[in-house]
Each structure stands twice: as structure tokens, then as C-alpha cells.
Amino acid sequence: MPRIDDDKIVWKGGPWGYIFLYDIATGNITQISKIGARPDIQGDMIVCDSWVGGLQTDIFLYNISTKEIRRITDSSDNDQEPKIDDDNIVWIAHDG
Hints:
This protein has strands at residues 3-5, 8-13, 18-23, 29-33, 37-42, 45-53, 56-63, 69-71, 78-85, 88-94. The protein is an all-beta fold. The strands form three sheets. It has a four-stranded antiparallel beta sheet, with no helix packed on it. It has a four-stranded antiparallel beta sheet with strand order 5-6-7-8, with no helix packed on it. A hairpin with a 2-residue loop joins β6 (45-53) and β7. The radius of gyration is 13 Å and the shape is globular.
């Protein structure tokens, strides 16, 4: 499901769950990650869950301005469905 914030849209697409960013103002489409799901966006920040080993998923944060990706969680839980609001990120942790 696409998520919109101001003039930017993020969505999951492609055969393996690529995360894309569309900038309405410039018309540019950028591939953010090669494996991911359920992205959310606010301002310059995109969060998504991504497979990191087998069926385990963790939460990642992408900064649009710096193009840096930062891993937010690193646990044996399946962390999924992140949402971002201001400086807060929430997600669901499935512990097995």
C-alpha cells in the first residue's frame, strides 16, 4: 500500500519487495532497497521492515537527504509494520 507525505510517495514493488520513492515535485523515482515491505514516510525519513536472515525481519530507517540506511532493530523477533511520526517509530514485534 503506498504511503504519502507532502510531495513524496513510497511503496513496495517488484518481484522481491523493492521499496521505491517517488518525488512528485521532481518526477524522480528512486529505488531505496532491494528487499523490504510495508514502508512508511514522514518528512525526510522512510521506515520499512526487511528480511535479514531466513524469515526474520527487522526495521530499517532511510534518510532521503543523506541516503543513509540505518538498522533500527536487531533481534530474533520478527519486527514488522513500522510507522513513523515525528521522532518516533513504532512497530509490531512477533516473538515466535
